[in-house]
Amino acid sequence: MRIILPLLTAAAIVSCAPALAQEGLTPGTKPFIAFDEPMVALTHVRVIDGTGAPARTDQTILVDHGKISAFGSASSVSIPAGVKEMDLTGDTVYPGLVGMHEHLFYPSGSGIAMYNEQAFSATRLYLASGVTSIRTAGSLEPYTDLNVKKQVNAGQMPGPKMDVTGPYIEGPNGFAIQMPIVNSPDDARRLVDYWVQEGATSFKAYMNLSHDALAAIQEAHRHGIRITGHLCSVGFTEAAELGIDDLEHGLLVDSEFTPGKQRDVCPDQWKTIGVIEKLDLTSAEVQRMIHTLVERIVAITSTLAVFEAMLPGRPPLEQRVLDTMSPQAAESYLAAKDRAVDNPRFRNASFLKKEMEFEREFARTGGLLIAGCDPTGNGGALPGFGDQRNLELLVEAGFTPEQAIKIYTYNGALYEGQADHIGTIAESKAADLVVVAGDPSTHIADVEKVKFVMKDGLAYDPAKLIDSVRGAVGIH
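Given the sequence above, the corresponding structure tokens read:
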């Protein structure tokens, strides 16, 4: 069994995210603050604590200078005199989401594989939706992402805590012209070494990388940093044996079951999808792959929302999504949805159902399932909004709402080496909290009804954040 590495990531994210509520607000964050008292008692609230345990009613959480100082039944928690009390009867609180496949870019809709950086809109949408920590899971403008992280940490702009993934580690024939080309193990090592020095805290291998160039795995590990992969030329089992830490998207991108697959060659993806849709998850070959991942402690990142966006008739068209898009982005997205209806080669519901079945089986076997929305594809999975939809899809896949929230909170924190700081609601942990109207434990779509989001005890107003980016997605 592979040993989990001590990581730079935890220190890089947690130690650089000061609680600002008691230290004064900057012009960059003040317009979006719901309230900024250093001590707040959230009383009579329903709590989904991130451990997977059933929701508890009539609870009180005491937040003190960015930390959770007390948590328990409303009758058991003593509230100091003068502390702001908020009666949240009927509302629910759960930990801030830890989004593990997020980006600060978005499809340009220009007809070529080009992506616009969304440093302004994406960070605000993540935070407004309750995503308080993200891994960028591949960067096309790594200096922009690193500088955004610095500004967020300094309180100069609103946004989540960030694990900044370096530039994609991709081989020849990559589809996006913004990606570097890695031809050899030496190329891979140089790329990793350089971007570690620049501040990257994780890496991502991509689709056309050879076995040899996956030397990037060992180089990342040498620096105490984890590496994930959206692979195609290399299958999941091979990647696990090479030491990769995480695999993106799940079964639907695993090429190892494609008949005639050649070493280091990405097969036709339509052929791979056709094979996987018919794959028996109880078969020896699939079970062997799953057990290899579990035994070698390789996580899987669920990105159901970006897959759903490609299906005819799904997801339900939301006005809030269209309102945040630029007119050009909205037009491109709606056109893509129309094409999905008319094109017989587009994916159908069985495609999504197979991935859901795989994720349940992987988790049942003991695998670490984490999640993120991947705001790419046809543009339908927006930052933050897509994460909320991903929670709903995890429940559709068969997880309980409490289990889905655990996948999106504790599991992500565990992978990032931060479970002592974030991911669950417990005394001494960071007050990264999402308060929603209603009860997601019985109606998971209530995760969309965000009332306010706390990051290190500072409460942000989601409506103000969303209003500030209306018409901006696709532009900046």
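The two ends are 44 Å apart (CA to CA). Try to locate this feature in the token string yourself.
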